[in-house]
Each structure stands twice: as structure tokens, then as C-alpha cells.
Design a protein that fits this description.
The protein has about 260 residues and is an all-alpha fold. The chain has one domain. The chain is built from nine helices and no strands.
Length: about 260
């Protein structure tokens, strides 16, 4: 009997459980540091500028062109059915619930997640983390907490920026380029877009930011094998974070629609 398949499945399962355990311990240590240790405000503000302010260009381009092309494609399909005025509602709801938070998170995982993993991984292989411990500085307080908090603060704000620009670009394309009536477009968009959609977007943006922060930091902290490991850590951080975002988005969408049923605000 060939046991190679069972060995592969067993090793994969054990590796996944070990990874989830390491991630859980990192989350626990970070939460404890946030609660107990004094917050390093200078490091936090520096990370907010790096994570939030410097990511705006990527978010602006992503949100604007996604909203514009989604508005055009929706119009091309709805125009055959005589439903041009419904384009605004579909674009707005889609940007709030799915496209805005997910695309912002994927852009952040590529830009910020890779940077965090590479930076912490370089410190790990050059023994700078051990030097911090020798100086009496807890690496979690100094490295992890500012980055995770910066992502938690910046993630929802960037998602909101992406959503706003996507809806604005979609409005311009639909009304100025494709000739949809502005009155009908705005009326249906405001009618079918509620505070419920905004809550879903902000919750998703926060959850995705937390996932990116912890996954990137975990990949950086477990870096080994010198330059090879430093080169591998950002790639693994981006791939794992992107897959986790897409998978968790599926379950979050169902959970949030149950928690915020239709007709609630």
C-alpha cells in the first residue's frame, strides 16, 4: 500500500496546525503588549504614515479605475434590459460590500505586507531582534504592536477612500460618458445604499487589516537561512495574506448578511 499520499496529507495538516498555533501565540502576545506595555507613539505615527499615507496612490488608482470599468460593464449588460438607472445602485453596493474592502486589502498585502515581512525578516537574520532583547526591549512592543495598530487604523480609512473614489469614477463614466440620467442614477444609488453597507465595508476593512498585519509579522519573525529566507518571506506573506483575505471574505460576507439582515441600518 502506498502511504505517500497519507504522509503528504499528514505533513500538510501538521504544518497548517503549527502555523496557526504560532499565529495564535503572536496574536496573544500582541494583545497582551497593547494592554500592558506603554504605547510607542512615535513608532505608531511613523507606521501610520508608511502604511496609510504612502499607500494612498495605490488605493486611489485601484478604486477609481475599478469603479469606472465596473460601471461601464454593468451598463453594457443592463442597457439591453432597459435598466440603465440601476447601474448606480449596483456599483455603489458592490464597491461597499465587496470590491472596495477586498481590493484595498489585496493592494495593502502586496505593498505593506511584503515590506513588513522583509523588514522584520532582515532584522531576524542579522540578529537585531536578539540585540533588542539584550537591551531590554521587547520585540513585540517595538516591532509588532506599532505595525498592527497602524494597519488597523489605516485599513478601514483606505477602504473608505477606495470606495468613495470608485463610486465617484463610476458616476462620471455612467453619466458623462454613457449618458445615463444623473437624477435616476443618484436616486437609485441613494435608495439602495444604506448605512448597513458602510458597516459591512468598515468591518471587512478592519478584519483584513488585522490579518495582513499578523501574517506579515509572523512571516518576518520566522525568517531563517539568511538572504534566501529574507527573499522568501515577503513572497510568502503576500501569497498567504491574499489567499486568507479571499477565503475569509466569503465567510465574512455570509456572517455579515446574517448579522445585518436586509432592512436594517
Amino acid at each position: 500500500m502506498n502511504f505517500a499520499l497519507f504522509n503528504a496529507l499528514g505533513n500538510g495538516t501538521l504544518g497548517l496546525m503549527r502555523y496557526l498555533g504560532e499565529l495564535a501565540f503572536l496574536v496573544r502576545d500582541t494583545a497582551e503588549s497593547i494592554w500592558v506595555a506603554p504605547l510607542r507613539w512615535r513608532l505608531l505615527l511613523r507606521q501610520i504614515a508608511e502604511v496609510g499615507f504612502r499607500s494612498q496612490l495605490v488605493v486611489i488608482v485601484t478604486g477609481a479605475f475599478t469603479g469606472a470599468v465596473f460601471s461601464a460593464q454593468t451598463y453594457f449588460q443592463f442597457h439591453r434590459l432597459g435598466m440603465d438607472s440601476a447601474v448606480g445602485a449596483v456599483v455603489a453596493v458592490s464597491m461597499f460590500r465587496e470590491l472596495g474592502p477586498v481590493l484595498t486589502a489585496l493592494m495593502l498585502s502586496g505593498r505593506v505586507g511584503a515590506s513588513i515581512a522583509a523588514e522584520i525578516g532582515t532584522m531576524k537574520v542579522t540578529e537585531q531582534i536578539e540585540a533588542l532583547r539584550a537591551l531590554g526591549v521587547h520585540p513585540i512592543d517595538y516591532l509588532i504592536v506599532p505595525r498592527v495598530l497602524a494597519l488597523i487604523i489605516s485599513g478601514p480609512l483606505l477602504a473608505a477612500e477606495c470606495i468613495g473614489l470608485g463610486i465617484g469614477a463610476g458616476y462620471i463614466v455612467a453619466t458623462k460618458v454613457l449618458g445615463i440620467s444623473e437624477a435616476y442614477y443618484m436616486t437609485n444609488m441613494l435608495k439602495f445604499t444604506t448605512e448597513r453597507d458602510l458597516k459591512m465595508a468598515m468591518i471587512k476593512g478592519t478584519c483584513f487589516a488585522i490579518l495582513i498585519g499578523f501574517i506579515a509579522c509572523a512571516e518576518g519573525l520566522k525568517t531563517s537561512q539568511g538572504a534566501v529566507g529574507v527573499g522568501r518571506a515577503p513572497t510568502q506573506a503576500v501569497v498567504i495574506a491574499s489567499l486568507v483575505i479571499l477565503i475569509s471574505n466569503f465567510f465574512l460576507s455570509f456572517a455579515l448578511n446574517i448579522f445585518f439582515p436586509a432592512g436594517t441600518y
